[in-house]
From TrEMBL, chain A:
Protein's job: The glycine cleavage system catalyzes the degradation of glycine. The P protein binds the alpha-amino group of glycine through its pyridoxal phosphate cofactor; CO(2) is released and the remaining methylamine moiety is then transferred to the lipoamide cofactor of the H protein.
Subunit structure: The glycine cleavage system is composed of four proteins: P, T, L and H. In this organism, the P 'protein' is a heterodimer of two subunits.
Enzymatic reactions: N(6)-[(R)-lipoyl]-L-lysyl-[glycine-cleavage complex H protein] + glycine + H(+) = N(6)-[(R)-S(8)-aminomethyldihydrolipoyl]-L-lysyl-[glycine-cleavage complex H protein] + CO2
Swiss-Prot/TrEMBL GO biological process terms: glycine decarboxylation via glycine cleavage system; nucleoside metabolic process
Protein name, entry field: Probable glycine dehydrogenase (decarboxylating) subunit 1
Entry-linked InterPro entries: GcvPA, GDC-P_N, GDC_P, PyrdxlP-dep_Trfase, PyrdxlP-dep_Trfase_major, PyrdxlP-dep_Trfase_small
From TrEMBL, chain B:
Any one Gene Ontology cellular component term annotated for this protein: glycine cleavage complex
Domain Glycine cleavage system P-protein N-terminal: residue ranges: 37-303
GO molecular function: glycine binding; glycine dehydrogenase (decarboxylating) activity; pyridoxal phosphate binding
GO biological process: glycine decarboxylation via glycine cleavage system
InterPro entries per record: GcvPB (IPR023012), GDC-P_C (IPR049316), GDC-P_N (IPR049315), GDC_P (IPR020581), PyrdxlP-dep_Trfase (IPR015424), PyrdxlP-dep_Trfase_major (IPR015421), PyrdxlP-dep_Trfase_small (IPR015422)
Protein known as: Probable glycine dehydrogenase (decarboxylating) subunit 2
Cofactor(s), names only, from the UniProt record: pyridoxal 5'-phosphate
Lineage: Bacteria, Bacillati, Bacillota, Clostridia, Eubacteriales
Annotated ranges, domain Glycine dehydrogenase C-terminal: 352-453
Record function comment: The glycine cleavage system catalyzes the degradation of glycine. The P protein binds the alpha-amino group of glycine through its pyridoxal phosphate cofactor; CO(2) is released and the remaining methylamine moiety is then transferred to the lipoamide cofactor of the H protein.
Organism field: Desulfofundulus australicus DSM 11792
Length: 447, 487
């Protein structure tokens, strides 16, 4: 077995030192009743070349972005990944290390997380950020939990324009804590601004919105923020970090906590994971935030260094009183994002965001001109927008597929009132030619 | 003084205004004025680095050199199963057909991915003795939360409102933290003389308020609880369920299974048992397996097969919902799948045999020099104590851990489990050779001797690392959590 160094001879010597004649003696304390009295039923072991062939076969059955031009969005996006990212991530000193408990031999991970926290603060306009969460959905759920703790209120208001899967996760997380979850309706693709006080009241711990929202539209975050702060509720924003190259940082419009999915920042699609969630907050919530946090300090010789800090919030110290149970996070993905943001810099991030917005604007206009297609919402948008088809979405998607194109998701899946609606995402990777092909394919549906 | 691989500058302190490491094509669409309201536009650019690609690469390469990984040397961090991470698994997960697939692709375009998930479910079900497995949880603790929410849903569906989760005093911190997050009151169960659950004490705690007991077996002392079937019967008798924290599965593969021990729910840590790398803290994956009675509550979607094609099954009316967006850390699942296929049944059993043999070998040698609170055969890890050194020489476990750095090793997990004073939890894993174990034994013996002869030396360790002991108290008292220009 190629990963196991012990030879029969090694094992004999080790057993002699232990004073046993068979390894089975070490398992003698497993009672008869609970033993597995047969071998595990698993496929035969594969040699490396066989393994590679088998997995290449499976991978070959999937329609990756090299085979299908991707206009799919909804939280995960086909952005360009600079080659420096996989090259640096493949340094095994990074990827074969554990959580940096022993700071003296983990300064690489720790300094990189410190840089990551700084970049997230810069993007969001927040004071503090943690070392990452599992994904955008759990980051949002944990943010809501922070709000209920901070306000001692048990009602969380979330807009229906927040990613439907995030809202499902929110529900899963909050329900057992006895938190009431209330949804704000939407009109024309954005949260309905009227009658906010019907939903947001003095029992409300937080108001949760997504900017740009699930439909790609820009929310009127100012009036939502006012409604939240007016009753002493926290204003929590989930934001696509790429959009923050051009959009106002949520810290500048009064957000208390900003979270989001970080996959856009240099991570592959991976069928939905791993990516990472980011979590940033105002200083006042520092001791309530979940997860790992890195801080700067100095060593016995006065040299600057970095450590995991504020651990009194965490499960290994506080156990049932911890702010969260999170232990492992998505550190390597956060490192990828740190490298991505370093490579892009302020100008590059602005450029990526600008290209997304320009190309999406072009696509929106181009598709609006297709017979049988209307752009569903006329609110300003970033890199995604919603089209409505006269024909069933499955039919439309079938035609696109035949032309090597994919768009979506089908919004009828999440919003019964939006059957025949399709989300279209346009990143900087899409070309005019690809967008035109999408339009032509949609013309074919009508034709 | 050792040579410093890093210039101590953070990426923000490198480069110069105008430098860049990106390259993006010019826009090929007609430029339009975006119809965005003025107050939504960013005015001030974020303070991101401005560096060229070579500077960027040197910086992160320098940082990587400050890290100790499994590929650097021995990493006996107890409870974390720091085994070797096969290179081929990394390459396979990066195949475009896995890395380049969007989660909302139509099912016909992800048949290979769905097949992999479907087969992986069957393997994990077989290894654990469970009926179905969800891949959705992103890590062990996330699996715990999922599992305890399943326990809760099960009881509620039966019209029972149980309020307590029992957790042994030796348990990992995520266990009580999880139970609290799921809305339960946490009740601690003491350990007995042999390091297992104190059955008499458990008996007193069991009643119809108990929703379940969370246990890892072998436990965090590395000891197999021989009373497990009795414990399972006791908990089941009052209508409670048994949750298996699968962090220690590396010890038992092919010998026993949580299902055979009487557990109802289990989580795996693919990043421990199944050799996927820890990534400096993640990503991992924490699939959750359940017995039949709990299947209706699993998160959606499950992956099913209708004889012709694989598909997502959302038709679980009693589901707890979703615990994460999409389908979990799929990329990690690919690596673990490749690992299981590389080893097969006999390979996995050999993994457990060697992991247990290596641990007992270390223990046999080290117990002459360090206090061993539970002197019996261990499984894949064991816990010794720095108590003798502390009492005799004033040298603490922390000091000895830091001294190990000078010998080139990652220290064991220290001060956990909480029930052993000055604990050192040592898990060698099966991927270490006898020579490495011998080197480690030598280093530990030398440290024990140094503790007697030169205690002050140990208290000042480490000496050979890039940086010395860091002031954690200052870090927490006056938190500095981000870089700022001019500081
Ligand atoms: C016994 C035990 N349980 C649970 C966990 C939590 O696992 P994760 O870090 O994957 O969330 C760990 C990891 O350290 C562990 O050792």
């Amino acid at each position: 077995m190629r990963y196991l160094p012990n030879t029969i001879d090694d094992r004999q010597k080790m057993m002699a030192d232990i004073g046993i004649s068979s390894v089975e003696e070490l398992f003698a304390d497993i009672p008869e009743q609970v033993r597995l009295k047969r071998e595990l039923n698993l496929p035969e072991a594969l040699a490396e070349p066989e393994l590679v062939r088998h997995l290449e076969d499976l991978a070959g059955k999937n329609g990756d972005t090299s085979r299908y031009t991707c206009f799919l969005g909804g939280g995960y996006y086909d952005h360009y990944i600079p080659a420096v990212i996989p090259a640096l991530l493949s340094r095994s000193e990074f990827y074969t290390a554990y959580t940096p408990y022993q700071a003296e031999i983990s300064q690489g991970t720790l300094a990189a997380i410190y840089e990551f926290q700084t970049m997230i603060c810069e993007l969001t306009g927040m004071d503090v950020a943690n070392a990452s969460m599992y994904d955008g959905a759990t980051a949002l759920a944990e943010a809501a939990a922070v709000a209920t703790g901070a306000t001692r209120r048990q009602r969380v208001v979330v807009s229906r324009t927040v990613h439907p899967e995030y809202r499902q996760v929110l529900k899963t997380y909050l329900e057992p804590r006895g938190v009431e979850l209330v949804e704000l309706p939407f009109t024309n693709g954005v949260t309905t601004g009227d009658n906010l006080d019907r939903y947001i009241n003095r029992q409300t711990a937080a108001v949760l919105v997504q900017q740009p929202n699930f439909f790609g539209c820009l929310e009127d975050v100012y009036s939502l923020q006012r409604a939240a702060s007016g009753v002493g509720a926290l204003f929590i924003v989930s934001a696509d970090p790429i959009s923050l190259g051009l959009l106002k940082p949520p810290g500048e419009y009064g957000a208390s906590i900003v979270v989001g999915e970080g996959q856009s920042l240099g991570l592959p699609l991976n069928f939905g994971g791993p990516g990472f969630g980011y979590f940033a907050a105002r200083e006042e919530f520092l001791r309530r935030i979940p997860g790992r946090v890195v801080g700067a300090t100095s060593d016995t010789r006065g040299r600057r260094g970095y450590v995991l800090t504020l651990q009194a919030r965490e499960q290994h110290i506080r156990r049932e009183k911890a702010t969260s149970n999170i232990c492992s996070n998505q550190a390597l993905c956060a490192l990828a994002a740190t490298i991505y943001l370093s490579a892009m810099g302020p100008a590059g991030l602005r450029r990526v965001a600008g290209l997304c917005a320009q190309k999406a604007a072009y696509a929106k206009k181009r598709l609006a001109a297709v017979k049988g297609i209307t752009v569903a919402f006329n609110a300003p948008s970033f890199k995604e927008f919603v089209i409505k088809s006269e024909y069933p979405v499955t039919l439309v998607q079938g035609v696109l597929l035949r032309r090597g194109l994919v768009a979506g998701p089908d919004l009828g899946r999440f919003y019964p009132e939006l059957s025949n609606h399709l989300l279209v995402a346009v990143t900087e990777k899409r070309t005019k030619e690809e967008i035109d092909r999408l339009a032509e394919a949609l013309e074919e549906v009508a034709g | 003084m050792i040579k410093n691989p890093w210039n101590e500058k953070l990426i923000f302190e490198l480069g110069a205004p105008g430098r860049q490491a990106f390259s993006l094509p010019a826009s090929d669409v007609p430029e339009v004025d975006l119809d965005w309201p003025e107050n939504m536009r960013r005015e001030k650019a974020p303070g991101l680095p401005e560096v060229s690609e070579p500077e960027l690469v040197r910086h992160f390469t320098a940082l990587s050199r400050l890290n100790h990984g499994v590929d650097t040397d021995f990493y006996p961090l107890g409870s974390c199963t720091m085994k070797y991470n096969p290179k081929v698994d990394e390459a396979l997960a990066a195949l475009p057909g896995f890395a380049g697939i969007h989660p909302y692709l139509p099912e016909e375009l992800v048949q290979g991915a769905l097949q992999l998930i479907y087969e992986m479910e069957a393997y994990l079900a077989e290894i654990s003795g469970m009926d179905r497995v969800t891949m959705q949880p992103a890590a062990g603790a996330h699996g715990e939360l999922t599992g305890i929410l399943l326990v809760r849903a099960y009881h509620r569906c039966r019209g029972e409102n149980r309020t307590r989760i029992l957790v042994p005093d030796s348990a990992h911190g995520t266990n009580p933290a999880t139970a609290a997050m799921a809305g339960y009151q946490v009740v601690s169960v003491p350990s007995d003389q042999r390091g297992g659950v104190d059955v008499a004490a458990l008996e007193k705690l069991l009643d119809e308020r108990v929703a379940g007991l969370m246990l890892t077996n072998p436990n965090t002392l590395g000891l197999f609880d021989e009373n497990i079937h009795i414990i399972a019967d006791m908990v089941h008798k009052v209508g409670g369920l048994l949750y298996y924290d699968g962090a220690n599965t590396n010890a038992i593969m092919g010998y026993t299974r949580p299902g055979n021990m009487g557990f109802d729910v289990v989580h795996f840590n693919l990043h421990k048992t199944f050799a996927t790398p820890h990534g400096g803290g993640g990503p991992g994956a924490g699939p959750v397996g359940v017995k039949k009675d709990l299947v209706p509550f699993l998160p959606v979607p499950l992956v099913d097969f209708d004889g012709k094609r694989y598909y997502f099954n959302y038709d679980l009316p009693h589901s707890i919902g979703k615990v994460r967006s999409f389908y979990g850390n799929f990329g990690v699942v690919v690596k673990a799948y490749a690992y299981i296929r590389s080893l097969g049944a006999e390979g996995l059993k050999q993994v457990s045999r060697d992991a247990v043999l290596n641990a007992n070998y270390l223990m046999a040698h080290l117990k002459k020099y360090f206090y061993l609170p539970y002197d019996r055969f261990c499984k894949h890890e064991f816990v010794i104590s720095g108590k003798w050194q502390k009492e005799r020489n004033g040298v603490k476990t922390l000091d000895m851990a830091k001294r190990l750095l000078d010998y080139g090793f990652h220290p064991p997990t220290i001060y956990f489990p909480l029930i052993v004073e000055e604990a050192m939890m040592i898990e060698p894993t099966e991927t270490e050779s006898k020579e490495t174990l011998d080197r480690f034994i030598d280093a530990m013996i030398r440290i024990a001797r140094e503790a007697e002869e030169e205690p002050e030396k140990i208290k000042g360790a480490p000496y050979t690392t890039y940086i010395g002991r860091l002031d954690e108290v200052a870090a927490a008292r006056k938190p500095e959590l981000r870089w700022r220009a001019g500081k």
